[in-house]
From TrEMBL:
Keywords: Leucine-rich repeat, Membrane, Repeat, Signal, Transmembrane, Transmembrane helix. Residues 1-22 form the signal peptide. The keyword Nuclease does not apply. It is found in: Membrane. GO terms for cellular component: membrane. Residues 30-364 form the Malectin-like domain. Its main location: membrane. It is a single-pass membrane protein. The chain crosses the membrane at residues 550-571. It comes from Carnegiea gigantea. SUPFAM superfamilies: L domain-like. It comes from the Eukaryota. The keyword ATP-binding does not apply. This is Malectin-like domain-containing protein.
Length: 621
């Protein structure tokens, strides 16, 4: 009985754990600069402290806007920490995500102006802050992007543009449906949706999805209120009745969104909404409708065209007929190319009716950047460590993307065949580098140019350097490199410029390098500890064939044998002479007087006598 109960308890506990884990979307919220986890009201939202995610400096924050979450700290990134700083989230399940970043202002009178900086998600630039973002009532206090995260991590970087230190209030990574905002054939990993605008019509108050009690899979979207289109002719209507077909996959819109609407009137039958956008970009526009006007009950009573920048996007929209009834949600989406700086949505009624609209969403379509070859990123990180790269150079995030912010000293090239970036140049001359050159430098196999001149690099040139076959220019001058030039360097067939001057190199320069000089290459080996072997340098002694070397070794061995033999003979001879002298000394009275211990003298006499008789008289002569 008890065991049954326990089993039941265990099973139910297990199923609770299992279902809650399987059903819930991944949600990670960071309160930047916080010393401990924070909960914010009224929704009791949990924000984790951002310890160990990145560098930077924690500080107290002033929240620039009514939209900002009620958090009291931020993290800022002074330029001394490098031009790019990143938060790296690990173990993020593969899927589609809303990534949202709120900016803050350091609560300190010494930080006077608002910082301007760039934001990237997974290497793609998603925002460039422009002046005025921190002014009151501004909606631009956050960046939101809808992205696919498929490599188990999320990397969010802030790039300095020379206008103050990037300061971040919070970061949210909220999983949504894999088909969320499916906008057409180009939907996929290659495209990112950047939220430009999300408004709820006839609402005075801005609200987050959580305030609406919306589905956890909806990404806690922010809906700003739009009380009127501004023509003072539209009419706000709202209902309490239930709306059908709301909160359905993939976008889970909250019911409240459809319970209010703006309707045009006889004075101005058209509704027009204009927003400023970045020119020469594609935009995904999502329009929400529900016929909540009690005066409309049948299809055909309200019909209107939707025009975007003057072009018909949806012809003859009849909400009742398209949604299937009154009080029923209808979501339409379209993608438009915009050349200019504005995007205008206008609803033109036909057949004498009026237009209605409940909500609008506008996203900028951004092509996701390709990443840099993982092997080459690993090699650069090995280099960063081995060369003790100074903090001010940064080297965080992806080396090549966003293309506007490559790592300092790294030149990139796009490999279209493999849809990835590779490194073709390394220019870190006069950067105060210490440490040594790692073997892994050879994994940067597309390098054409390396300039590490004028640093304090020690140790030897790794022999693996000889495998970077595309290398044309190698400048390692004015360092403290020692040892010899690796023989493998002779394999660098494309090498045109080789500057090794001003180091402590010694030994023979590989003969192939010397041969290259005939082909108008420019090599400089001066000012080293002692290089030899090619024209212009001292000779290293006669150049010998393999056979000659064997001969020399053989001769040397013979010579050695001869010397050893001679020394042995000489030693024996000397011993015998000494013995003979001692034998003679026994007879001499002056020698006796010089000896203090007669016993020792005795022993010597005995030994000498014996050896002398053994060796025979010839050697004594
Ligand atoms: C931040 O604010 C708290 C109190 O709210 C204060 O104790 C602390 O010293 C402040 N920190 C800084 C760096 O100003
Ligand atoms: C968006 O519109 C396209 C057609 O333009 C349609 O295929 C797609 O299903 C729509 N997306 C959603 C989520 O309704
Ligand atoms: C907009 O989309 C079209 C077709 O989908 C594409 O050819 C064009 O390059 C896109 N424009 C921009 C600026 O991305
Ligand atoms: C508009 O009204 C005319 C006649 O009044 C009708 O023929 C036409 O089908 C209507 N158009 C729509 C889109 O309902
Ligand atoms: C490498 O950098 C140094 C110092 O900036 C410069 O003088 C030199 O010309 C560069 N080497 C090459 C091969 O361009
Ligand atoms: C080169 O210098 C390093 C110290 O910087 C030393 O440990 C090493 O033995 C030297 N190698 C040669 C071949 O002189
Ligand atoms: C080679 O380097 C030395 C300094 O180490 C310099 O004086 C000389 O001009 C260089 N030669 C060439 C050809 O650049």
């Amino acid at each position: 009985m008890l065991t049954h109960l326990l089993l039941l308890l265990f099973l139910s506990f297990f199923s609770i754990c299992f279902t809650s884990q399987a059903a819930g979307p991944y949600a990670m919220r960071l309160s930047c600069g916080a010393r401990r986890n924070v909960r914010t009201q009224p929704t009791n939202t949990l924000w984790y402290k951002d310890f160990a995610y990145t560098g930077g400096v924690p500080a107290n924050a002033t929240r620039p806007s009514f939209i900002s979450p009620p958090l009291s700290t931020l993290r800022f990134f002074p330029l001394s920490e490098g031009p790019e700083n990143c938060y790296i989230f690990k173990r993020v399940p593969s899927g589609r995500y809303v990534v949202r970043i709120f900016f803050g202002m350091v609560d300190d009178p010494n930080f006077d102006s608002e910082p301007l900086f760039d934001v990237s998600v997974e290497g793609t630039l998603v925002d460039s802050l422009s002046a005025g973002w921190s002014s009151e009532d501004n909606e631009r206090v956050f960046t939101e992007a809808i992205v696919f995260l498929t490599d188990g991590k999320a990397s969010i970087c802030f790039h300095s543009t020379g206008h103050g230190d990037p300061a971040i209030l919070s970061i949210e990574i909220l999983q949504v449906d894999n088909k969320a905002y499916f906008f057409g054939p180009q939907f996929g990993r290659g495209s990112i949706l950047k939220t430009v605008k999300r408004i709820s019509c006839a609402q005075g108050k801005p609200r987050f999805g959580e305030d609406y009690g919306s589905d956890p899979w909806s990404g806690d979207r922010f809906w700003n209120g739009l009380p009127t289109f501004g023509q003072s002719s539209d009419k706000a209507i709202s209902v309490e009745s239930n709306i059908h077909k709301v909160s359905v996959a993939p976008n889970f819109y909250p019911q409240a969104l459809y319970q209010s609407a703006l309707v045009s009137t006889d004075i101005q039958p058209e509704l027009t909404y204009t927003l400023d956008v970045e020119p020469n970009s594609n935009y995904s526009v999502w329009l929400h409708f529900a016929e909540i006007d009690p005066s409309i009950s049948k299809a055909g009573q309200r019909v209107f065209d939707v025009l975007i920048n003057g072009d018909v996007a949806f012809k003859a929209v009849d909400v009742v007929s398209m949604s299937g009834g009154v009080d029923t949600a209808l979501v339409l989406n379209t993608t438009v190319a915009v050349d200019g700086r504005t995007l205008t949505i206008s609803l033109h009624p036909i057949n004498g009716s009026h237009a209605i609209i409940n909500a609008i969403e506008v996203f900028q379509l951004i092509a996701a950047e390709a990443q840099t070859s993982a092997i080459e990123v690993g090699a650069l990180l090995a280099l960063k460590k081995a060369l003790q790269l100074p903090h001010r150079l940064g080297w965080n995030g992806d080396p090549c993307v966003p293309q506007q912010h490559p790592w300092t000293g790294v030149d990139c090239q796009f490999d279209s065949a493999k849809n990835r970036w590779v490194i073709d140049g390394l220019g870190l001359d006069n950067q105060g580098l210490r440490g040594f050159l790692p073997r892994d430098i050879s994994k940067l196999s597309h390098l054409q140019t390396i300039n590490l001149s004028g640093n304090s690099i020690h140790g030897s040139i790794p022999p693996t350097t000889g495998t970077i076959t595309s290398l044309e220019i190698l400048d390692l001058s004015y360092n403290f490199l020692n040892g010899s030039i690796p023989e493998t360097m002779g394999q660098l067939k494309a090498l045109r410029i080789l500057n090794l001057n001003g180091n402590k190199l010694s030994g023979r320069v590989p003969a192939e390098l010397g041969g290259r000089l005939l082909h108008r290459a420019s090599f400089n080996f001066t000012d080293n500890a002692g290089l030899c072997g090619i024209p212009g340098l001292p000779t290293c002694g006669p150049h010998l064939s393999a056979g000659a070397k064997v001969g020399i070794v053989f001769a040397a061995c013979l010579g050695l044998l001869f010397i050893v033999g001679c020394s042995m003979i000489w030693w024996k001879r000397r011993q015998n002479i000494l013995r003979a002298q001692r034998v003679a000394a026994r007879e001499a009275p002056y020698a006796k007087k010089r000896t203090h211990f007669s016993r020792d003298v005795q022993m010597t006499i005995h030994q000498s006598a014996r050896t002398a008789s053994e060796n025979g008289p010839i050697l004594l002569s």
